[in-house]
Design goal:
mainly alpha; two-stranded antiparallel sheet; centromere; cytoplasm; Ska2_N; kinetochore
């Protein structure tokens, strides 16, 4: 404070300078801010800043590593896709033969056409009737779309879906559903 006071222009009298010095001291005392405390706080803030900067550098390095990993994974997936594309195209052709004969009703619910139904061998469709199959398939789609899961045979019976093994086999033959080893059914479309 004395250096600030001493550097003031000389046009002030000595009494004026003493008053300014006392006033500055009083302001420091009344404000409750001790310059030593302010300097200590400033040092703590600088240390926190340095620590945060170091952590930010670590995070940026981790992000660069993870982005490199993601890029490598994407490149691997691209290579696999290019390698598998001929086989997938052939499978899609067979899949679309059946599915082009499926009608889409409101809310995305699908219904089998007569030609799709008749494309299933008689030994598989046995005594199944198309209207009953479409009714069951609609119920199955509605439930599985709402719950986004699979259904066990037991649960289908509890829900009183008009289920039969023959209907499931027809839908499975048309690759509309998949039945896992536990007997749970899930939609493929």
């Amino acid at each position: 404070c004395k250096t600030a006071v001493e550097s003031l222009p000389t046009s002030f009298s000595k009494a004026d300078l003493e008053y300014i010095e006392k006033r500055l001291k009083l302001d420091f005392i009344n404000s409750g801010e001790n310059p030593a405390v302010i300097l200590a706080d400033l040092g703590a803030i600088k240390a926190k800043h340095a620590n945060l900067f170091f952590e930010m550098e670590e995070i940026a390095a981790a992000q660069r590593r993870s982005m490199g990993s993601v890029r490598r994974s994407i490149n691997t997936i691209k290579e696999l896709t290019q390698h598998l594309q001929p086989a997938v195209s052939a499978s899609f052709f067979l899949y679309s033969e059946h599915h082009s004969q499926i009608e889409v009703l409101g809310c995305g619910i699908r219904q089998l056409s007569d030609s799709a139904f008749k494309s299933v061998p008689l030994s598989i469709r046995s005594k199944v009737k198309l209207p009953e199959l479409n009714s069951f398939y609609q119920q199955l789609q509605e439930h599985l779309c709402k719950n986004n899961s699979s259904l066990s045979m037991q649960k289908m019976k509890q829900l009183k879906l008009n289920m039969s093994e023959a209907k499931l086999k027809v839908l499975q033959h048309l690759t509309l559903i998949e039945i896992d080893k536990k007997g749970s059914v899930r939609l493929l479309m």
